[in-house]
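User: Could you walk me through two proteins back to back? I'd like the raw sequence and the structure tokens for each, with a short line separating them so I can tell where one ends and the next begins.

Assistant: Of course. Protein one, sequence then structure:
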Amino acid sequence: MAGEITVPTLGESVTEATVAKWFKQPGDAVKADEPLVELETDKVTVEVNSPAAGVLKEHTVKTGASVEVGALLGRIEVGAAGGKAAAAPTAPAKAEPVKAVATPVVAAAQSAPVAASNNGPAVVKMAAENPQVNVAAIAGSGKDGRVTKGDMLTALAGDGFAASPAIGPREERVKMTKLRQTIARRLKESQNTAAILTTFNEIDMSNVMALRNEYKDEFEKKHGIKLGFMGFFVKAVVNALKQIPAVNAEIAGDEIIYKNYYDIGVAVGGPNGLVVPVIRDCDKKSLAQIERDIAMFAGKARDGSLSMADMTGGTFTVSNGGTYGSMMSTPIVNPPQSGILGMHKTEERPVVVKGEIVIRPMMYVALSYDHRIIDGSESVTFLVKVKQAVEDPRRLLLGL
């Protein structure tokens, strides 16, 4: 009996993927639920598992091909014994067609020869698949020297596995990933569709820095997570969104949809580009819960293990270019959202306070917004509300 391997449903608004890698070749024995092929979508990487035990009969698409949901990827001879690997116990043959199952790439091979035990599951899995790479010799760019998926991709490229053939002595041509293609398309669509403007302000970080320094050790001891600045900004944004609801709305045809919930996207850098995981219901969460979610998503982004559900939706986005040293920028709105807040590097600068010149840690902030739905006065007021809440965190307790 032959079973078909098809592209499963990939998630909301995802209609196609690229075949990144085949784990099995025709003639190989496969077990039920064993990963067969890796698909790269515009959001995450997913594995398609074997629907039953048997032998992989054929690939119907090659690595690098684009496929749509429901497309045929290959066929399995259910219950047959393979000549290239030990056959697994066969599953009872049924007349009904079998369907493949997609799972986010979060599981790792247990026998991976990885020296550092704190490396993420994506690294462990890649190390198992590429034994020629000495993971222990890679200088990890992650926290505490942790090797990330991006570090592994760089190491593989150095060995000639990831880079495309050079087209000249001074340049090379590398195919864009599906994620990078989507980023380019969506950002250009945003510029072409929305009437994007940006307004700026600056925030005196003195009070929030003093608050953090005073309570960070006690906070970490109680909640098991470090106290950062992003949590304060997320809380300040939610407070401002409640007062200026147009910034939390979106345009749908000739209607405006006002959101009565606050799912905030936090832009973080991953091994394949910028990703925006979404923290749900931020208005109902404590500062500790928000900080915990941010840390969790940042770790998953580094390991390349974010799921599609992690990045679906979002009513507003916060992006922190300051982590890369940016002094000022104009972030691009992530459609269908209507606004995005850009944070930047905190630097000591001379400012005038009560007629005197003093040195204060200052941060420039930028709000890019869709002028079709948000008026200039609303955008300025929104940014002022964020500024006031961060400069005086007590206002967040009072909802001011």
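----
Protein two, same layout:
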Amino acid sequence: MAKPKVIVIVGTTATGKSALAVRLAKKLDSEIISADSRQVYKGLDIGTGKVTKQEMQGIPHHLLDVVDPKKKFTVVDFQRLAMAAVAAIVRQGKIPIIVGGTGFYIDSVVRGEVYPQVEPNEKLRQVLSKKSTASLFTMLKKLDPKRAKNIDTKNPVRLIRAIEIAKALGKVPEIKKLKLPYEFIKIGIVLPQNTLEKNIKKRVAGMFDAGLLNEIKKLKAKGVSKKRLAEFGFEYDDPDLEKVILGTLQYAKRQNTWFKRDQEIKWFTPSKTQGFAPKEFQKIETFIQKSL
């Protein structure tokens, strides 16, 4: 029997992934699974560019707003919930669409890698949190060179967690792979650099206009610490317009580096800054239909 198909849409921030996913979901009567390491948290809406109810256009979205921001949510948690969502959608006779920019989370589902369960070590985290990302990356390269090759080198949370796992196990963890009962159709959106930069600047300005600073105040009022906010990224760590624009551009570069390694992704470039023209969208539809 042919394996059920799962569509995966990837790309850097500000490329229009969410809009494309909704457009395809309406055509295919699909449901969407968000693969974003911060959009799983409640209350992190403006700063993460979370899709709004209006933008969903009635399409069910999974793995948004599933955990309190004061609690930790790991790739293992994501993998478990995402796989359950994929299975539930398939049981309905529908095609799941996974969309997002967190490559590590997407790979956890698409590759079916089984990650080690390691409890947090708060004492170790306190020590590591005082180190620079460069120092953390150097430590990780010594402990686990393989993990160091595909980690976000600018993300202290990921670096600390990887070091924590390697130290807890006393060795480089052996990652096992599940035999997945699905076939994944991967498409990516890529924009010319000048267009991407314009989109990012416009998006960041829109975040501040929409009330990013007020969102941060609300999170603090709910007991989310300054340290925890900093862990969520530059948008929540005493943000200003230029700082967030620069951080977003750097983040997009890291995302692009991650996704470009995957030779199975079929890339599409929209001619419009706000999405694909009808003929371009038709090409994506045709590619997907041939792959189903």
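The chain has two domains: 5-114+179-291, 122-174.

Let me know if you want the two compared in more detail.
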